[in-house]
Amino acid sequence: MATTRMSDIGNLMLAGSTAIFEKNVKIPAKQYWPEICQSVQEEKQVGNYDTLGNLTPAAKHVEESAGAYDKFEYNNRTNITNYVWEKKVKVTLEASLFDQYGVVEKLFGAPLIKTLRDLKEHNVAGVYNAMFTATGADGVYLASATHPLLNSSKVNNNLMTGALSTENIKKMQNMFNSIYDQAGEKHGTRATHLLVHEDKQFEVYELLQSSLMAWEMSNTTNSLEMNGKLKVVLNPHLTIDATTGVAPWFMLDRSLDKAGVIMQTNKGMTLRNWLEDDDLTLRGIAYEVYGVGQVTPGYGVCASSGA
């Protein structure tokens, strides 16, 4: 771990950088992750999340027949492990004593917090970015057309292809109408949020909020604007191809409990600083304990890679 020394203080102060540094420290950082995942408190290191295997359909009673007793079953267990995420800094005692501008003091506060916040944003967005290649607890990719069901031969499909367009948005929204519970019955889920990369904000607003069909020379009514049910969520941490502009996009059902992406928190952000006696360096550490993952595969999220 590198150490901030007296010679570094001058470099931080060059060309009026004090004002710039102080301004950046004070700017409140927008947090994106709470909009795209559910928060769960978990005291254990590993949290377990199961998909409930629904009862098979009800049937007509046959007179004098005992019938069959059913039971609730659990399957597709997802484990989310809490890890310690940290950032450390240290400065020499001399640099601290002779720092007349308070630069060292600022190093032990907002910059540490920002690094942890940035990491959390990447960790949460990374779950979405990996949905097309990461295998879920049901043995298929998190975004897949073949999510198996425990008590039915049907499958759930939360994967489609294609870029943002009027027809593709309609198609993905309708996919929620064909999501089944583990017994093969309609689950009753619906899309509540549309998640896109921040670079796609103008494109998606044109598609959703125009009274007429976007990008067409016609008087066709835009049914997406009339629908008005999707909340747009912008996130700059999703992947995007800088050359082609291809980016994944998602629809979420934020009304479902314990479905989709979970932020599992054990301990919130903690800041500590102390003087190390051995080498007389001031040390600071910021850390928090959490885990991130997608649970109940096939529910809560529909996705397109954008290609």
What is shown here, in short?
The protein is α/β, with parallel strands linked by helices and 307 residues long. The strands form four sheets. It has a five-stranded mixed beta sheet, with helices on one face. Strands 1-11-12-4 form a four-stranded mixed beta sheet. Strands 2-3 form a two-stranded antiparallel ribbon. The chain is flat.
Could you explain how this protein is built, in words?
This protein has 307 residues and is α/β, with parallel strands linked by helices. It has a single domain, classed as phage-related protein like fold. It is 23% helix and 30% strand. It is built from eight helices and 13 strands. The protein has helices at residues 6-13, 17-26, 93-97, 103-107, 110-129, 166-175, 201-209, 223-227, and strands at 38-41, 46-53, 73-81, 83-92, 147-149, 152-156, 159-160, 193-197, 231-235, 249-252, 260-276, 281-295, 301-304. It has a five-stranded mixed beta sheet, covered by helices on one side. The chain has a four-stranded mixed beta sheet with strand order 1-11-12-4. It has a two-stranded antiparallel ribbon with strand order 2-3. Strand 5 (147-149) and strand 6 form a beta hairpin. The protein is flat, with a radius of gyration of 25 Å.
